[in-house]
Write a structure and sequence with these properties.
four-stranded antiparallel beta sheet; 290 residues; alpha+beta; 10 strands
Length: 290
């Protein structure tokens, strides 16, 4: 019997980490080589991670929504066909800790000692906006019991928390304003019944949330100026065509144009340092590291 590590695969030369989206296998489940064990996502693409061996899932080391660096061990597989049936008897000894890692995620908001996992707990932009406007700290957010999918804190959860803390009468005007940007309408049936009947709310997928978050942050911190200029990249294309086969054999991944663009931008920033700056209030932050 042997233990085989299942590692986070390298999905591209510029990708350094991936997020766990869904586990298809749990500790104790049998798995065949190349069978899908979990789904992961990066800023560029969603992908499936297959098993690297036949056997039984021995342990899962990360939860859904955890961000995992490339090359890290994400699960272990117990191999050797003759031993496959035996672990069932000893399963409680090895699998008993696994529910602590996998199943408490929906209940995590009810347990304040699980603060070490709080950085990976997802809060929608709406919930964060309400928390900011109402002065709800992250410690208070972590204590709120989430009624949403996988224990996520919904708009109703945080509003109920605020009402209980400060009194519902003082919060009603703020709640009314917030409802205009809410993901789900909680307005009473007597108010805007037609809008409620003819409105559909579709939750963004992970990629949509990332794009929205990054674009909003970009607007807040960067000066937006657009300029177009043409460049002849014939030699760049010819060089890549010449080295791509040897590069893939040596590095185990294909070379794209991305590192070439990165080098060009880095050289440009050395000549024009203000490109590498952002705005904070009335200050321009000039970053000297490229």
């Amino acid at each position: 019997m042997a233990i085989v590590d299942l590692v986070m695969p390298k999905l591209g030369e510029s990708i350094m980490e991936a997020t766990v989206l869904k586990w298809h296998k749990q500790p104790g489940d049998a798995v065949q080589q190349d069978e899908t064990v979990l789904e992961i996502a990066t800023d560029k693409v969603d992908s499936e991670v297959p098993s690297s061996a036949d056997g039984i899932i021995d342990s899962i080391l990360f939860e859904v929504n955890d961000v995992v660096p490339i090359g890290a061990v994400i699960a272990t597989i117990r191999t050797k066909g003759s031993e496959i049936e035996k672990p069932v008897a000893s399963e409680p000894a090895t699998v008993d800790p696994a529910p602590v890692l996998v199943t408490p995620d929906p209940a995590a908001p009810q347990i304040s000692p699980r603060s070490e996992h709080s950085p990976n707990r997802f809060y929608s932009p709406l919930v964060m906006n309400i928390a900011t406007s109402e002065g709800v700290s992250m410690k208070e957010l972590e204590k709120i019991t989430g009624s949403g999918n996988e224990g996520r804190v919904t708009k109703n959860d945080i509003i109920t928390f605020i009402e209980g803390r400060n009194g519902s009468e003082n919060q009603k005007p703020e709640i009314t304003a917030v409802e205009k940007i809410s993901e789900r309408s909680t307005t009473e049936p007597s108010v805007r019944p037609a809008a409620q009947d003819n409105t559909e709310f579709i939750e963004m997928d992970r990629m949509g949330k990332l794009v929205s978050e990054h674009m909003t942050k970009s607007i807040q911190t960067s000066v937006h100026v657009t300029s177009f200029s043409e460049a002849d990249v014939t030699n760049l294309v010819l060089w890549r065509n010449r080295v791509k086969t040897s590069f893939e054999k040596r590095e185990g991944t294909r070379i794209t144009f991305t590192p070439l663009f990165v080098e060009a931008i880095a050289r440009c920033i050395k000549k024009f340092p203000l490109i590498n700056s952002s705005v904070e209030g009335t200050n321009i932050i000039l970053r000297k590291d490229i």
